[in-house]
Amino acid sequence: MKLLTLLLCLLALGACVFKTKKCKGPRVAILQIAEGAALNAARQGLVDTLVAQGFSCPKELCGKVPQRRSDSAQKTLLYDCGQGAPPLCAAIARKFVSEQVDVVVAIGTPAAQAFLGEAACPPMVFLSVTEPKTAGLTGKSHVTGVSDATSAQAQLEYFKSIKPELKTLGMISNPSEINSSIAVQETQEAAKALGITIKVANASKVSEVAGAAQALAGDCQALFVNNDNTALAALPAVITAANAHKIPVFCSDLDTLEQGVSAALGPDQYALGVQAAKQVLAILEGVPVESIMIAYPEKTQGQELRGTSAP
Q1: May I ask the CATH architecture of the domain 22-149+269-300?
Q2: Domain residue spans of the chain
Q3: What is the Cα 127 distance to its own chain's centre?
Q4: Nearest CA-CA partner of 39 in 29, 47, 28
């Protein structure tokens, strides 16, 4: 009897070794391209929702969300940030895939694209990606997610209602970010009908944003940061340059109002994070990824910085 009991214990242990996921509980890995008000808000909606369902809080974010204990197998969230560098994102994506997590969540276009190069990539949910199709994220059986796309025409009309004399608008763009390049093209197209000229300055990394903003601020009536993760990561430098020339900064992300932009029109990023969390939970419950449609903002809204008006 003792021998039989020992054999059963060894078999159970072997099952845990070869079926780690069942023994440890589900693990969800989150990769964010860079820190920034909008992406952080989206991440917060994602993490809050998953923590409420029993997932442990990532150690890097534990001070920002309440801790919850799982009432069954440990449900784990992992987190890392690419610091705005696609090569670092690729390395982190490779690490998460090698750890055989159950689902990966990619916040920002470059983060999502980093996982596309991994042949053994588990189901992926992207978040805050403006152009999923252009980024190569559509038509893949293991990929779904939530886009933050907003009408460029609606944005420009709103900004012009705040500053009717607007004729020249400056945009900072990282040419290596597909989402940013598309945003610039769409804004330029929409601007034609409104009599607005779009001037663009490139910034391939965060350290170049201040110089690009200074160059544009001296030659434009306003600056517009539209879904460019590099510019968003250095938004204080953009605002400083604009303030020096007494011009407003407009943005596509409502969460940047807290940092001092003059006005913004876009989706509720926290709500987008909640939507993405629901997709993650559906996948973990066994819903086929290909049956989960890519989601888009249910609504957008425009807001101005309270107590101020655009210069």
Answers
A1: 3-Layer(aba) Sandwich (3.40)
A2: 22-149+269-300, 152-266
A3: 5
A4: 47
For the chain, give the percent of residues with pLDDT over 90: 73
Taking only the tens place, the pLDDT of each residue in 266-294 is 999 999 999 999 999 999 999 999 999 99
Non-local (6+) Cβ contacts of 70 within 8 A are 25, 54, 55, 56
| Residue 301 dihedral angles phi and psi, to the nearest 5° | -150, 155
Nearest 5°: the CA angle 240, 245, 247 is 85
Pairing outcome for strands 143-147 and 124-129: parallel
Q: How confident is the model at residue 143 (pLDDT cuts 50, 70, 90)?
A: very high
Closest-CA residue to 147 (of 133, 127, 176, 125): 127
How much is the pTM? 0.79
Q: Note the pLDDT tens digit of each residue in 64-121.
A: 554 554 444 689 999 999 998 999 999 999 999 999 999 999 999 999 999 998 989 9
Determine contact, residues 27/221, Cβ cutoff 8 Å: no
Nearest to 31 by CA among 44, 23, 43: 43
Average confidence (pLDDT) over 4-23: 43
Inter-axis angle of helices 109-116 and 178-192, nearest 10? 130
- Specify the 3-state DSSP secondary structure of 90: helix
Angstrom CA distances, 261 to 36, 77, 121, 216, 265, stand at 13, 32, 38, 16, 11
Q: Does an H or E element contain 198, and which?
A: strand 197-202
Distance from C-alpha of 270 to C-alpha of 112, rounded to nearest angstrom = 19
**Superfamily of the domain at 152-266:** Response regulator (3.40.50.2300)
| Mean pLDDT, the chain, whole residue set | 88
